[in-house]
Design a protein that fits this description.
It catalyses: Couples ATP hydrolysis with the unwinding of duplex DNA by translocating in the 3'-5' direction; ATP + H2O = ADP + phosphate + H(+). By secondary structure, the chain is of the alpha/beta class. It contains 28 helices and 26 strands. The strands form seven sheets. The protein has a seven-stranded parallel beta sheet with strand order 15-16-14-17-18-13-21. It binds adenosine-5'-triphosphate (ATP) and magnesium ion.
Amino acid sequence: ETRPDDDLLVGLNSQQREAVVYRGQALLIVAGAGSGKTSVLTRRIASLLRSREAWPSEILAITFTNKAAGEMRERVEQLVGNSAKGMWISTFHSACVRILRREAEQFGFTKSFTIYDSGDSRALIKRLVKEREADAFGLTPAAVQGRISKLKNELADAESYARQANMNDPAERVFVELFGDYQRELQRANAFDFDDLIGQTVFLFRAFPRVADVYRRRFRHVLVDEYQDTNAAQYALIHELTRPISDSVAEPFESNGMMIFEPDRPSGRDAGGEGASLTVVGDSDQSIYAFRGADIRNITEFERDFPGAKVVLLEQNYRSTQNILSAANAVISNNFDRKDKRLWSADGPGEKIVGYTGYSQHDEAQFVAEEVDALRRTGVDYSQMAVFYRTNSQSRALEEIFIRAAVPYKIMGGTRFYERAEIKDALAYLVAVANPADEMALRRIINRPRRGIGDVTVEAIARYAQNEGITFRDALANASALGVGPKMQAAIAQLDQVLADATDLMLPASGELAPPTAVADGLTLLMDRSGYRDALRMSRDAQDEARLENVDELIAVAREFARNNPEGTVIDFLAEVALVSDTDDLEDASGSVSLMTLHTAKGLEYDAVFITGVEEDLIPHRISANEPGGPAEERRLFYVGVTRARKRLYLTLAMTRAQFGEISVAMPSRFLQEIPGELVDWRQSPGDVNSRGGTQSRALNARPGSGGSGWGRRQIRHDDPPALAPKSTSLDRFPNRIPAKLRDNGDMVLEAGDRIRHDDFGEGRVDAVTGEGAKRVAHVRFDSGGLKKLLIKVAPITKI
Ligand code: ATP
Ligand code: MG
């Protein structure tokens, strides 16, 4: 018997096939990197469509980035043709924006709501912190923003947080007030921040089951990629979507101090039955977003939450050569509390990993550029090469060399285009038109370009708006009533007129459809008539020329948008721009080398990968050192980087690095030490650099391990006792290979029964202490399960 989807199974291994054809309620695919999780998800969608078990409109697939969504859609279309139109394949955020656009009016927002990115939220919080003089309590805008975001990811709001906070603590009280202020300001501005997009959708579904039912009826198949990185709010959203259609009486629900009663309960006719089928795929070794509230338990407890779920394990890796996989396995096996799984490949060992230590980050970058060039000459396309780093600021040295060497490159994600001030200004003009309630946008542009409107006038406008019960935008239209001088009145009236004209163009009141070019034309009008462009043009600041180009680039983006979305409005345009998240880029990277952070690299693959800055304090990053589970998460991040490589992997570092305005001596990352020595071909090892006394020149064929005085002045700190370290590591060739430890617990008194905390492994109880002096060993039973022997003198442990 042949099935209509038979050809979709060609080339798949038996576990992969099983995952494609399984037709139960809940399916969990857990597997290591490169084992075909995303491929299986794609084929599964194709199979559902091809067999006519599902209409495209019944499918909701969630990916981690817009880029991944685009690729998945393309692949499904290749497999089943145009019938794939109508599917929702998107990120959590994009899916929620679509839902909220339709439903926002249910709960006090309008369809034209603005999306605040993290810079916008920061600006708002900064103002609120200032108003409440909260810095006196040690509440910086960054800290407040971080805490609010974390709470929102746990679906807490100001009230629910206040109920369990210590309100006797004045700092806590102020924080709760700020949280409440912030939420009210967002609501007043008809805006959602990034976390709200998810959290408010969950709130909407819970408060209005009937609304939720619309989506439950629609999406019969929900599929989630990179499931290990979902946080509590995203998890709740999946839960809401896959519930059976409502059959119970909804409880009244409290939010922001209001009681919400569900206005209209379902008739009960369609109630009950099964919820949507749910497929999730993930790899707990690649969980790298705990700092954003991602909860690895979502994957480990899937079977409990979805009883009867089928679990499929994929084992074979189809991406990388065995040498790369062996390095990845060796590194990740140092993480405690994980299911042991070993990636293997049928493709043979492949090339050795290449190691290189530069004297400085420039030397390191130079090496990368030369290797890129060499690879290119052997026929590897630029688009098949990627350079990763831990922090965005590391890209600059690479960029400088790439520009000089004429290597075409592309920075993926990060603080580029859309975070530039002039782009934010231009977008704020559009927001002021699209969503007049958005006071922040108006405050941003009111004096850009300079119109002589200062804080005093801005406050006069705000006061007037408040007294009259009108919006800030409407207050602008009453310049003469504001009690400001005639010059100021004229400046305000002029801005008001420009905004009004742009509104007529982009959002005609007559109800007629704006022409496709309205956004681009409106933006041009705003930039010209506001004087913004002229101000840049006339400036003597050389950077303003580049800024002008950026504004023009944005107008070009708007024209491109019009071509792709002939009916798209300014509101759609702003949503699209806001969702070009920090992991995405507008253009594709064909024909150029991709530069990106390790976080952005998730899910991608390249023939050749360079991981740069493989140093202590970078990877693992120093901010992780004091966080519970921090070093383990950094190891997973490094593992993600290593497993992106198909054929060639380069690990590079620099002995000195200029950072934060200082030059510091860098130490090789502990992760290098975890890689078996025979896998790495060191073109220049840390020992070589030191033995030459730090000369700037680079000897390409320097022989590794040629003596020297050790690694430098600073000492390495690592989290595993030497007893646990692999016998032979990639750093074996370095002189003084066992690094001295920064930590010395030699004096720590420990006995059976004591409790300790380990930086990586968490808390545990001492079972016994053996040995003497510097060789005392604690036998610790960790709460997470498992017994470890730790050399007390050096283990990163504290007594609790
Ligand atoms: P990650 O964890 O990094 O997201 P993944 O598990 O999603 O990885 P995929 O990206 O789906 O893995 O697959 C990795 C590579 O292996 C892709 O190039 C894919 O085309 C290829 N691949 C997957 N399954 C097979 C197969 N059965 N035969 C040949 N190639 C395969
Ligand atoms: Mg994948």
